[in-house]
Amino acid sequence: MAVIGELIKKALDFTGRIISDPDPVEAQKNVLKTLLETAKLTAFGKQYQFSEILESDDIISEFQNRVPVHDYDKIFGEWWHFLLEGHQNVTWPGGQSYFALSSGTTSNSKYIPVTDEMLGCIRKAGISEIATIGAFNLPGDFFTKQILMLGSSTNLIQKDDHQEGEISGISASNLPTWFGGFYKPGPEIAAISDWDEKVKRIAEEAPNWDIGCLSGIPSWIELMLKEIISYHKLNSIHEIWPNLMVYTTGGVAFEPYRKSLAKLFARPLIYIDTYLASEGFIAIQKRPETSSMALFPNNGIFYEFVPFNGDNVDENGLVKPGGTVLSLAEAEENVEYVLLLSTVSGAWRYMIGDTVTITDKARAEIKITGRTKHFLNVVGSQLSVNQMNDGLRVIEQEYDVVIKEFIVAAVHRGDEYIHKWFLSCDKSPDKVKVAESLDATLSENNKNYKVARSRALKGVEVELIPEEIFYKWSEETKKKGGQVKIPRVMKEEDFLEFAAFVEKNLG
Length: 507
What we know:
This protein is an alpha/beta fold. Helix content is about 35%, strand content about 20%. It is built from 17 helices and 19 strands.
């Protein structure tokens, strides 16, 4: 098997040398042209005159002038609901085989169309991901090991003329045949809908597998690993999977989980970040010398960038009419942007809900900085999730604790506002001192927050709770596992409901 692994590694190395990355800017022009050409006879294409856009000398500018920006509610209300009703040729040629049910943090009921063309793009990106692993200087034997992909159930829901499920389940149910020998937990276990039952079966079967790579959202991967270690009474997961070398993460910021995950391993892993959303496979980390991810500039998605500031984005995290929107060619490095997508699934100038910065424009590399609706600005504090995460890393160092989950909101204290935080914590430092330290760190690193603290934001409170409460709340209000993420910022009404849940479960 080692010989086979070396041959695979050499093939990947050779492929990487002969296939160079395209020029991102030129590739993006071609992608948009292909999208418009393919969809010009759909109802959407006729409404916004794609045929005329294609005749323009500058199709990007013409496209931006004619087609409005959409959030989910707008595009579903005006267009995608027809797809659920069985209509065809609405925003993309043909009908729908799949809808991805979003279980993200901004909505619990999104139906995202997933076309056959998008599945092809996801498979192409997946192959690129395997080829990318070759850049991380792994031994040849690694390429004969198995990959455990912890995602949602592949047992999709049949509804009339289409199937529904989370994107990880849809993707896993459409894996290429040749990948079957490498894929774990295998189709039978992957089809289990109940999270606890699925993890129990994985723990039972784990000794029979030779896992070299893990893939999944960090919080659920960690819970799975803890279950396996407990079930087999291990000191680390490497006792049962000695060849585990790589973890491809995604879905949420990884850094909060790095410290606690490391305790489950006997030696360090290589971490590779990915960006797979219900709307498509957007980016992957291609180089070991950076944690940034490279966009796929020629794989069925056209990207646009809206500067994330008050001139362009309203208090609800939506792009304002007439806001500045830039193509990849026009966007700049180290500026925070709201990301828009136009895709082969019939999303057009669609707000995916994430904010990013471009870290290397020539390589089309980005970092996710947060969510448009997880932006705390009720009293002008202008705190992004990225800034919150950075502040909590300082708290971890100062108090020697691990903080993986948190939820924050601006809540009333009489006629004034404070920021109230619930933090998961593995120890019990003084919560008043933690609040003071967090407040000082955020004031030092965010001038808007510092100004808010001198005016409308009158205080900061912190409650330290076990991380299990976050997961129990997720299980009872959403569901457990798969692509489910813990929200970081809540509106006051929702936050007070969460606070009541915490009090009940602590009591």
